[in-house]
Every structure is written in C-alpha cells, then in structure tokens.
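FW: tagging you since you asked about this chain on Friday. Here's the raw sequence from the shared folder, copied in full. Didn't touch anything.
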Amino acid sequence: MKKIVLPSLLALGLNFGAQAQKLNPTEQKIAQYIDAHFAQTEQLLKDAVNINSGTLNTAGVKQVGDIFKKEFEKIGFATTWVNLPDSLKRAGHLVAEKKGKAGKKLFLIGHLDTVFEKEMTFSPYTYINDSTITGQGVNDMKGGDVVVIAALQALQAQKLLDNATITAYFTGDEESAGKPTSVSRKDFIDRAKTHDVALAFETAVGLHTVATARRGASGWSLKTYGKTGHSSRVFSPEMGYGSIYEAARILNEFREQLSSEKYLTFNPGMILGGAEIKYNEGKANGSAVGKTNIISPETVVNGDLRFLTETQKIRLVK
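HL: got it, structure written out here
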C-alpha cells in the first residue's frame, strides 16, 4: 500500500481533534500536543518513507530502525537491535522498552520493512493533494510506526508513562519473514508472552476501528515443465503445450476453484518463463531469455495465500 490520508494525527487510534468536546482536560492536552507537533511528526514519516527498506535491503531496514530508535530514546525508552543469523539474510528487529510498576503490560507491534525492494522503481514521499500522500511503505506500515511514536511522545509529555510497562517491537522482515520462523520470530514471541495486551498499528480500514483478528498468510510456488522445440509444433501430440501454457492452465484452474472461497485470496505475484530462466529466491528476482518461435521448457510462479484458519489452509493445500 502506498497511499495514506493525513488526518490530525492519531494517538493510540483515537481522533482527538474530532471529539475535542468530549475530552477531559488531560486528553485535551494530549490532543493539543499532537496538533502542535504535527509538522515534526510528518517530517519523521517523510524521512522514513524516503529510505528504501524493502525486506531484502538489510541496510535500508536498519537505517529506518536507526531513525525510530532515536525518537524512542528521546522519551526514555531503552532500545535494542535484535540481530538475526547471517544465514537468514534479514536485518533484524528494533525493540524499545519502558518498564514501570503499574497497569497492563503493553506490546506495540510495527515493522520497518516494505514490499518495495531496492531493484524496483523508487516512489518518494509525494503529495497527491492537500490531504493525501504517496510513497513506499507510507501506509504499510511506516505511517503506523510513526503513529506509535507520536502517541507515546504525547503521553510522555503529560507524564502519563511514568509507571507504564510498554514494549514497542518493530520487526525488520514482516513482509517476508526469515526462514525458519522459529529463529526469526523467537525473540518476538518470547517477549510477547510477558505482556498482557498486544496492539498492532498496520493499515487501518478507517478511523475509530480496531481489528480483533486477521487472516493468516503463507506462500506457494508452482513449477511447470514441457518439451522445447520450434513453435510451429506447439499443440502437437509430440510436443504438447509447453510450460507457459501449462502454468496458465493451472493458475486459471486455481482461480475458478478458489476465487469464491470465503476469506481466501490466492495471488500469483511473479511469473517467469522462457527458453532459459534464472530465478533468485533470495532476492525475489530473476531473468528469462526466450524467442517467440521457441516453446518454453520451464516456468516458475510464486505467490501468497491468505486464509482465515489453519484448518482452511490445510484443506486447500491438500
């Protein structure tokens, strides 16, 4: 997602500006702080968006983490960078903590990476009109990260965090988790278990709404093979249809059978076919060489699967 509407900044998901008449004096001060610091908050978002932090661009992910790290430290949070093994080829995670003695222990979740890899055309922070901006990761989810920081800054200014226990955990590989997840998510899960309430700040469907659950996600790949030869013999009993036609047939069969399944989406995100193909899974890119008069011997398709329950996923995979 690349667009976000700029409302009067939200504190913990509440639009204080629109409900000022209902706020008590402390809440009004929080709202006033947010409004007074809106320009600085937007600049923070702009700075983060203008850094490419595609999951596989580990240097860029760390650079965004450094920007947010400084903001957390300004309000007294202790920060840690959780490194991952080099074999995972992921940047790691930013953790910011404040430990108090009262109230529920809160776990605030965000992520630093985006789906836009370094090799893709860069889209900087740009105004479409006076209330809408576009840019890489502005909505998914650097905008949510900035909301977390802005809300905590406003609460700290009113000394409302003095006794609070809060952990903000911004992962560096949400869009494409390092495998195995038993390694890349271990620290995240261990810390989450020590808290009472977890709140994620990604991609709201509108103001004054909270999602209490979300679909699971998985990945899949399809590889098809065929005989290669001159295109004049395609469809013949000897040569068949080739790998590209076969991949298209299977994908269309998936579409016809699964597109009406409630709560399910099944998306092929990349297809690569030709006389010769090279696919680099680690960088999510590849190359193909082919001619119109050569039947393709190999095709690769990668995609994702979104499902409501593990039972639904298992049933569909089978």
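FW: The longest helix spans residues 138-157.
HL: agreed, and The chain has two domains: 3-200, 216-317.
FW: great, closing this out.
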